[in-house]
């Protein structure tokens, strides 16, 4: 499958720390085992690059304040996304706090459990060489004094699965934070006139979070489609407006971009397209490729599309299934120009470390028999790869017609009210329910009335972003690092 390329790599700074009042030999030996363990975990999780401090600090362990600047310079040069501070004995809370404050990225604190104090044959107890847990407490207080948010993993044995789970969850947190900071969303067209609910403050998103909205005019999409018909490259400047540019050649005798045939083949092999015909499938393929190309050249992590107008007017087809295809190819695509929904979808896919596509749904009607279930529905942005097992996704009038798989689901809404931003993140699961048209899943929770009140008074709207998997805890933790974004949930979400 043709994929949209997202930056999935997490660059992780490794800073083992020690305290010089403890004997150095035991902590040095422990450090080597700790680093090896993290290297193994990084390899098993994939798309992780570890940056150690061996090249700038003698022995590869930080304890001397004079070395903090060297570590900071290294990590800035390497563009680390997060930092891990393994305590190889008590540690040194001041170097941790000052390094973390300078870098300003997610921080993970952990130390292995101490062995039992040694005793000789007479029963005399020898000195303790590590006291890692005690040092973790000191470090946490120092980080608080420097106003540095942090995550920690329970003080556990080096080979414990607790460490594996905690490390994996922290990677998801780091992935969410990386995706959020400096996010660029391509906006194709304007919002539907009556949709006051999807209004945003573009300037505020930029000033508070560095999230940039990139206008992409429908005329740019049209010109890009015409270039695809002629297999011509896009402008490297990222703007494909017709005005001020030379007219395109007639196209006679020119072959289209070879990706178009591949996309058509992929669609026709995966869905029931019998009601729309080959020509409509080809139109959808051109739209997909054009939007992906414009998103790529403008370095966008998602798009929000005026699905009500531009594609219907320009190509005679709605863009509904095109949005589903973009999700399947790794590019979140919000309908009805809902920028905040696009943000939510980006965060969900980052939390899942891009293992599965998100979707965007209307919160529509209650289950006729189960008071705690709700229909999550739309006519487009549900990837066909999510279709319920044993069924074939269908496309009617260029709109998706299929139920997606159930199982654990995480649902979010990123939104704002009078300059206050919040991230609603909670979980439920797919359940059985009546068949309907469009794309859908019946969503079951503990208490739907509480969900309804949360959406009404949030204030939130009828659009949510969803994904398969349980990531509410990860998203709550990520809110520590997102700046002025308050975590919100219907049910209490446990701490990491």
UniProtKB/TrEMBL annotation:
Statement: the UniProt record of this protein carries the keyword Isomerase: yes
GO molecular function, one term: L-fucose isomerase activity
Location of region: Disordered: 111-130
Residue intervals of the L-fucose isomerase C-terminal domain: 403-483
Stored Pfam families: Fucose_iso_C (PF02952)
GO cellular component, one term: cytoplasm
Keyword Ligase annotated: no
Protein name, UniProt field: Sugar isomerase
Organism: Hungatella hathewayi
High-level lineage: Bacteria, Bacillati, Bacillota, Clostridia, Lachnospirales
């Amino acid at each position: 499958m043709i994929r949209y390329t997202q930056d999935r790599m997490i660059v992780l700074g490794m800073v083992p720390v020690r305290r010089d009042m403890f004997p150095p030999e035991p902590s040095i030996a422990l450090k080597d085992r700790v680093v090896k363990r993290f290297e193994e975990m990084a390899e098993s999780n994939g798309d992780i690059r570890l940056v150690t401090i061996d090249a700038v600090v003698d022995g590869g362990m930080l304890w001397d304040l004079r070395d903090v600047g060297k570590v900071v310079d290294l990590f800035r040069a390497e563009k680390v996304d997060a930092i891990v501070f393994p305590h190889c004995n008590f540690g040194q809370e001041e170097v941790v706090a000052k390094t973390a404050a300078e870098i300003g990225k997610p921080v993970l604190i952990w130390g292995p459990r101490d062995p039992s104090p040694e005793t000789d044959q007479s029963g005399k107890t020898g000195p303790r060489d590590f006291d890692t847990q005690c040092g973790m407490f000191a470090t946490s207080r120092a980080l608080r004094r420097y106003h540095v948010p942090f995550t920690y993993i329970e003080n556990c044995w080096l080979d414990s699965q607790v460490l594996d789970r905690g490390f994996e969850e922290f990677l998801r947190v780091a992935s969410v934070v990386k995706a959020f900071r400096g996010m660029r969303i391509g906006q194709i067209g304007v919002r539907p006139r009556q949709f006051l609910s999807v209004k945003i403050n573009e300037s505020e998103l930029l000033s508070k979070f560095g999230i940039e909205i990139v206008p992409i005019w429908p005329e740019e999409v049209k010109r890009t489609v015409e270039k695809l018909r002629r297999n011509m490259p896009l402008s490297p400047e990222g703007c494909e407006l017709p005005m001020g540019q030379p007219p395109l050649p007639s196209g006679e005798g020119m072959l289209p971009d070879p990706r178009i045939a591949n996309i058509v083949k992929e669609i026709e092999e995966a869905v029931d397209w019998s009601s729309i015909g080959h020509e409509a499938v080809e139109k959808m393929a051109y739209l997909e490729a054009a939007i992906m190309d414009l998103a790529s050249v403008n370095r966008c992590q998602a798009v929000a599309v005026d699905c009500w107008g531009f594609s219907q007017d320009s190509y005679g087809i709605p863009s509904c299934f095109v949005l589903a295809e973009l999700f399947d190819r790794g590019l979140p695509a919000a309908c009805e120009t809902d920028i905040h929904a696009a943000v939510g979808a980006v965060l969900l896919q980052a939390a899942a470390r891009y293992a599965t596509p998100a979707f965007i749904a209307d919160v529509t009607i209650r289950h006729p028999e189960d008071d705690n279930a709700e229909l999550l529905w739309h006519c487009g942005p549900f990837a066909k790869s999510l279709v319920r097992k044993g069924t074939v996704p269908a496309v009617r009038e260029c709109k998706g017609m299929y139920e997606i798989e159930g199982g654990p689901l995480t649902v979010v809404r990123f939104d704002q009210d009078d300059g206050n931003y919040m991230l609603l993140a909670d979980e439920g699961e797919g359940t059985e329910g009546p068949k309907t048209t469009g794309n859908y899943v019946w969503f079951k929770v503990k208490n739907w009335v509480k969900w309804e009140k949360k959406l009404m008074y949030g204030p939130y709207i009828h659009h949510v972003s969803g994904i398969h998997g349980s990531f509410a805890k990860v998203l709550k933790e990520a809110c520590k690092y997102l700046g002025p974004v308050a975590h919100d949930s219907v049910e209490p979400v446990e701490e990491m």
